[in-house]
């Protein structure tokens, strides 16, 4: 996993979680959904990079 891709994945996960929490706190369903989607995107990026790493070994 390249450090840059790993950082992007973690940033997306953290940002998504924060948006999701903020959306829930204020009752903004759009922000909650946007945060959930961004968090899932980070999870997918991380999984893809881990799969690449497994293939290298």
SSE diagram, text form:
Layout (H helix, E strand, L loop, with lengths): L2 H24 L2 H28 L1
Helix pairs in contact: 1-2
Walkthrough of the structure:
This protein has two helices and no strands. The chain is mostly helical and 57 residues long. Helix 1 packs antiparallel against helix 2 (29-56). The radius of gyration is 13 Å and the shape is elongated. The N and C termini lie close together (12 Å). The model has no long low-confidence stretch (mean pLDDT 92).
Please give a quick description of this structure.
This protein is mainly alpha-helical and 57 residues long. It has helices at residues 3-26, 29-56.
Order of helices and strands: HH
Radius of gyration: 13 Å
Q: What's the β-strand tally?
A: 0
Helical content band:
over 70%
The DSSP helix count reads: 2
In the predicted model, the low-confidence regions spanning at least 5 consecutive residues are none
Overall mean pLDDT: 92
Structural class: mainly alpha
Shape summary:
elongated
Task: Report the β-strand fraction as a percent range.
Answer: under 5%
What is the CA-CA span between the terminal residues?
Answer: 12 Å
What characterizes the major β-sheet?
none
State the main characteristics.
mainly alpha, 2 helices
């Amino acid at each position: 996993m390249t450090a840059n891709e790993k950082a992007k994945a973690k940033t997306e996960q953290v940002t998504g979680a924060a948006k999701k929490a903020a959306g829930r706190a204020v009752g903004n369903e759009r922000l909650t959904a946007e945060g959930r989607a961004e968090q899932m995107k980070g999870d997918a990026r991380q999984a893809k990079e881990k799969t690449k790493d497994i293939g290298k070994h």
